[in-house]
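Technical note accompanying the year-one report. For the benefit of new consortium partners, we illustrate the data format agreed upon in the data management plan: each record pairs a sequence with a structure-token string. No post-processing was applied to the example shown here.
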Amino acid sequence: MISCAEVLAELSNLLDDRVAAGLRSDLEAHIAGCSTCTVLYDSMRKTLTIVTEDRTFDLPEDLSERMAQRILARVRGGPARPPS
């Protein structure tokens, strides 16, 4: 049986479909039976999907300003409040 460390070492190759069939079966069997590796695999797969999508989203103009103000307030240790 493959260990979590072996899954972690091969996860990128698995997601890129660059593993031999036998190893793929072993990795998939381990992932199916290990909740930690299942979460890791699913998270990496979803992250790759988000990062590689070509879609863009238009945000309201004031949203970035409000976000910047909240981040700065948190960094400075003050309360996060919207700009006045």
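Partners are asked to follow this layout when depositing records. The chain has four helices and no strands.
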